[in-house]
Amino acid sequence: MRRFLLALLAGAAWSAPARAQTTAPAAATTPAVSADEAAVRAVLKQYQQAVQQLDTTGTTRLFVANSVVLESGSREGTYAHYRDHHLGPELKEFSSFTYSDYKADVTVDGPYAFATESYTYTIGLKKGPKDTAVPAPIKRRGVATSVLRKNAAGQWQFVSNHNSARK
């Protein structure tokens, strides 16, 4: 394997065109974010904000009708099913939900976009009627991968979302 990698690197060095030593170093640049990438990031943020606000109102428009949601080893069905039978009921039990250490990589390829997110989330739970004290917050590291598609109206929507977490 080491020989293969060395041969590959050597081949790349031999095939690269010679550059004059007097060439000034390239200026450090930050890659420009395309309008589509910015729009995809806005959809990710809208969904994240809804969860942090503990309110799924209006989030259905962020997903295609036949979307697929996968969470921690379980196929949750469409977003509408996930919203009604999993996410929505859970959010009602929370006093808070916050994201931190958030990072997202987004790649746009034609009418599709691929997003990989990593984050830490902290859940504050409401005190239940039988609880003697407010339960301790739950803190987890999470990741999500999503596929989004640009619809005929030019709006980006989740086609699939897969998220998981660990302590």
UniProtKB/TrEMBL annotation:
Entry-linked SUPFAM superfamilies: NTF2-like
Domain SnoaL-like, chain residue ranges per copy: 40-164
Name of the protein in question: DUF4440 domain-containing protein
Organism superkingdom: Bacteria
Coiled coil residues, start to end: none
Keyword Iron: no
Signal keyword on record: yes
Range of residues in the leader sequence: 1-20
Pfam families documented for this protein: SnoaL_3
Keywords (A to Z) from UniProt: Signal
Natural source organism: Hymenobacter lutimineralis
